[in-house]
């Protein structure tokens, strides 16, 4: 199955970083395409986007200053199908992407994404005290997978922190 194309550009407000694409994303060629994934709902309900986008509109979010990438580009059924070497290589590539494009915020969609990338054992939700790449603020958000058992309103409230940051620190409006 082909890799999912990144949506990257210079000057991004947020670069959303996942583990790797689902099989459904691999079939469609779009990020967060599994119908059980709540990503697009979370973005709308948190106020990060003005409406609920569809997965096939993922490239349109570049206009809003939002980009997409993954630690591993290869679609799989689950993260257990990713080899350690793929993580190591993907982390090296991700580090280079962050250093090259310098998004204002690197949003890791899931604690596991962040801990896998950084090698840190534990982390809290939200903004991190230390950034992996100078000039890029690290933010850890809950996974948007439908398998997550955290209440949706709690997930949305964490993503709202990103919206408030963009409004306050970067001067963006709702």
TrEMBL record:
Residue intervals of the Uracil-DNA glycosylase-like domain: 9-153
Keyword Hydrolase: yes
InterPro entries xrefs: MUG/TDG (IPR015637), Uracil-DNA_glycosylase-like (IPR005122), Uracil-DNA_glycosylase-like_sf (IPR036895)
SUPFAM superfamilies in the record: Uracil-DNA glycosylase-like (SSF52141)
Any Pfam family matching the protein: UDG
Gene3D superfamilies associated with the record: Uracil-DNA glycosylase-like domain (3.40.470.10)
Keyword terms of this UniProt record: DNA damage, DNA repair, Hydrolase
Name the record gives this protein: Mismatch-specific DNA-glycosylase
């Amino acid at each position: 199955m082909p890799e999912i194309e990144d949506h990257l550009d210079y000057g991004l407000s947020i670069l959303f970083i996942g583990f790797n694409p689902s099989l459904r994303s691999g079939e469609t060629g779009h990020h967060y395409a599994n119908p059980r994934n709540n990503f697009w709902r979370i973005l709308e309900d948190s106020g990060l986007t003005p409406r609920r986008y569809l997965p096939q509109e993922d490239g349109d979010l570049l206009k809003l200053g939002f980009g997409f990438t993954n630690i591993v580009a290869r679609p799989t059924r689950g993260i257990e199908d990713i080899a350690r070497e793929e993580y190591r290589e993907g982390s090296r590539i991700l580090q280079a992407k962050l250093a090259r494009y310098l998004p204002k915020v690197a949003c890791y969609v899931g604690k596991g994404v962040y801990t896998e990338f950084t090698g840190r054992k534990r982390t809290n939700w939200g903004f991190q005290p230390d950034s992996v790449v100078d000039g890029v603020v690290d933010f850890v958000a809950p996974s948007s997978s439908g398998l997550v058992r955290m209440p949706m309103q709690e997930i949305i409230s964490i993503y709202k922190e990103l919206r408030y940051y963009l409004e306050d620190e970067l001067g963006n409006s709702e």
